[in-house]
Amino acid sequence: MLIPALMIPMIESNQPMPAAKPTLDYAPRQRGVALLATLILTLAVTIILGNIFYRHQIQVSQAAGSLHGDQAVLLAISAESWARDILLAENDDVNTDHFQEDWAQAIPFLPVDGGSIAGCIVDLQSRFNLNSLSNYTASSLKKEMDGTSVGHAQVWESLLQSLGYTLDASRVAVIVDWLDKDDSRINSYGAEQSEYSLYDPPRFPHNGMISDAGELAAMEGYNLWDLQLLTPWITALPEVTPININTASEQMLLAMSNGMGVEFVDLVVSGRPYTDLAAFYGAINQYLMIGEAQVQARWPAALVGVKTAFFQLNTEITLGQSKLQVKSIMHREGRGAPAVISREITVVPAGVTTLLFASIADDDSGAEADDNESDKKYYMQPLCEAIPNNYNADY
Prior knowledge:
By secondary structure, the chain is an alpha+beta fold. About 35% of the residues lie in helices and about 15% in strands.
């Protein structure tokens, strides 16, 4: 009986029967992992493509900005050609310069493809030329300060005083020492290398004519704030120059008045333009009755003139996202055509309206805003609007 014998051990065994293993369904888990992997891959591809498109847009924008910048510079050079043509002897009387001439008219707002161009020509000899103080010696400076004739040194002191500065003898002396070629102080109020070496870091006097009026901020007793305040009234031309009485602002005329004050300003402005110095001296003598020789001695030809050799073209070009302000200095004395001797290009950041810092009220009344910063709007003043413009209304 084989069957019972085989079945007995199985029945009598105390070991439990093996449990049946449950059947697991892995399909849902596999689908979830696949979906997650797909989402991660899609996100990675999206980020990569977005980065590629972003970089592409930056490159396109940079290329467009570079192209617009180059085109704006070419437009500025074209404006210089226009200004040089206006200042040619064939188109302008080089023996006298005043505001009734063509060069004194602002460049009309000119639309160009994708932008605009505007500007004006400025008579640089209507300002105080810092380099005009370069020829002073200790004796000539003392003679002028103690005498009755007005010169560049006295005009500089008078200009500072009219702008609210407290005067002392160092105001002129430090500029003379900065410009002269020796290393000896012009007087006890001057400053040379021995004084500037004490600065940290040390400074070095130019010992020659300067090419940028901004050097004033580096001189003893002057700073950046002084430069910002004086910028509308000063320049740095490559030679000693007289001040054009026909184009000088009222502030400059007041500084040149030699004690006459506003009477001198009113007299000069009412008689402009003067065709020559004789007409100017005659007008002053008619008022003072001291003789034209005495008038000429008080306002020498080295200080006063009626013609200009140096002009500055202020141009503002807007092209696409590029905005440039260009200052081009031109010299025409003894030349067949005016030559551009200096060019300064300033890039105005996109989105900033052109200007010096100023604030206006939020309304349209033109009233000044109060001290609350939230009520102020800051803008950038166009170059030609930043020029002192307190001339006679007849101009």
